[in-house]
Amino acid sequence: MGEIALIIIAVAVAVLVIFLVVLIVKVMKTVDEMNRTIAVVTQDTDILLKQADTLMAKTNTLLDDVNSKIVTIAPLFTAVADLSESVSKMNRSGNDFATRFKGKAANAGKATAIVTLGRGAGKFFNRKKSRA
User: Fold this and answer.
1) What DSSP character marks residue 132?
2) Which residue has the higher pLDDT, 8 or 2?
3) Going by C-beta distance under 8 Å and a sequence separation of 6 or more, which residues neighbour residue 98?
4) Strands (E), the chain
5) Is it the case that residue 129 has pLDDT exceeding 60?
């Protein structure tokens, strides 16, 4: 009976060793795959970092160019703002003038109409005198 017990223990140890060997092989394959994946990610990360550095350098150059152009254009915006203010003042002055002389302008319009009517009547009567 002792021999059977030893055989059972030997078989159990052999099964356990086989199971552990299979497990270790699978773990090694997984570790190898992880190492390859890490290598690829590291390579891609290096490429991305180089591209990001290049992009940042180009962005800084572009920003410097834009800033220098803004400095050049700033007086133009100041001049346009001054011109706009002058036009607004002139428009306001014109409106004030029109408001002050509104009543006088209506009288001037009536006077112009009367003068025009008088000239027309004078021409009409002058024609009659010259025919007679």
Assistant:
1) -
2) 8
3) 105
4) none
5) no
